[in-house]
Amino acid sequence: MTTAVPGAGIMGAAVVRNWLKVRAAKLQVNDGSTITVRWKNDDKSEKSGSTAPGFGELPAQPPIARRRLLIVGGAAAAALAGCGGPTRRLPLPGAASPSAGSTAWSIPVSLPEPWATPPVTRYDAGLRAAVSRYLRPTPEHPAHPLYPGAVAFAAVDGRVAAHFAVGDAVRYAADRTELPAAERVQARPDTVYDLASLTKVFTAVLALRLVERGRLDLDAPASRYLPSFAGKRGITVQMLFTHTSGLSKDTPLAGGSPADRLEHVLREPPVAAPGSGFLYADQNFIALGAIVAELTGERLDTLVRTEIAAPLGMADTGYLPPREMLPRIAATEGPLRGAVHDPAAAAFGGVSGHAGLFGTAADLGLFGRALLSGGGPLLRPETVERMRANANARFGPSAQHGLGVDVDQPWYMGRLAGHGAFGHTGFTGTSIVLEPRRKVVLVLLTNRVHPDAAWGGNNAARKAAADVLAG
């Protein structure tokens, strides 16, 4: 029987599988027991346009995407997974059974601390103009709009500077045709977006909380906490945070279950010497999420809710959004709406350390405010300082990275970069930038992959919004 990419959240396996069929160039059915999906898919390569060598069987993919996904079921999985002897089965970071879904949404959250008043008004008009410009084709991007809709949230020195929505959360049908105006869903300030790799910052915070408690050592080999890393003793925990482990960005996923796929990823050898350079790879945060789950004995969806969302009042942030949230969720690619877009996260059941979170711009504003306020209830001030310090100075400016965050990257931070700004981007079109000097929080959530990720990236919009706040 064919193994399909498991569904996550609102949409089930059949829907996700149908989406893969729509993307025929990215799907290959080898026999009755195997589906192979190869998909280069990473936001970081929007900066350079570089790609890794291909597998050879499928057409070349857009240069903005670099990660590939390989999912194999049945006997082929055993052959691919299989070197070494039996290994101890790790707990999944949080993949829920189809019948259970995520119960973390039932965990209550606090009321968020109000923002200081009065609000800042000088930036709103400029931000609206910068973000709205890309709702239609531009001379720089004439074929398509950069995105169908967006929500922006900005704050300066603890006061809200802007919070608005433009465009549509749903504009296209599954076949990429534009919907009639009456059938579209407008974006709203409380629209929920697939956060993609912004998830990594949450995983980093969870891991750093374990560092503060003395349960995780940044300088220790990751194999101390992950038996599947045996043989990779040169990879330290900090190298996972900073993408200097040498792990491949193209590691295939193989196995008939989420647990098998996780095990396969964790057992993959590095492609470069640990510590020899910067190579952005989701595998680093897949592994870091597995470490957090292993040390706590808790699922990542539960940990994000109890340790981050609950104390900050982030009621709309979590994995595997419940069905009742669907009217507020922005669509991503093909028919996906409410199911995680990232294929690797989907293969793990919707929850992973590298992707899978959904949330709103206002919630991310609360998260950013905490990190700019000495960590708030999340981290100690000295931990935040270490988190945002450049740990990759020896590898050059383009590799500047702290513990789970980019540092001073003008390709999306614009003129906010250069003074210790830190943040992250997500492949679906999301980003957060935090600038400590003026306590600037800038969140831009778009669904630029709707209806097709190949239509292009939205770094121009990210940079333009950042430049407005830079003054």
**N- and C-termini, Cα separation:** 59 Å
Mean pLDDT: 83
Work out the number of β strands. 12
Rg (C-alpha, Å): 21 Å
What best-fitting shape do the alpha-carbon axes yield? globular
Query: What pattern of helices and strands is seen along the backbone?
Result: HEEHHEEEEHHHHHEHEHHEHEEEH
Helix proportion range = 25-40%
How many helical elements?
A: 13
Strand content: 5-15%
Return the structural class: alpha+beta
List segments where confidence is low: pLDDT < 50 over at least 5 consecutive residues.
Answer: 1-42, 45-92, 94-101
The main sheet orders its strands as 5-4-3-12-11-10-9
Biggest sheet character: 7 strands, antiparallel
Polypeptide structure, described:
The protein has about 475 residues and is an alpha+beta fold. Helix content is about 25%, strand content about 10%. Helix 3 packs antiparallel against helix 13 (about 460-470).
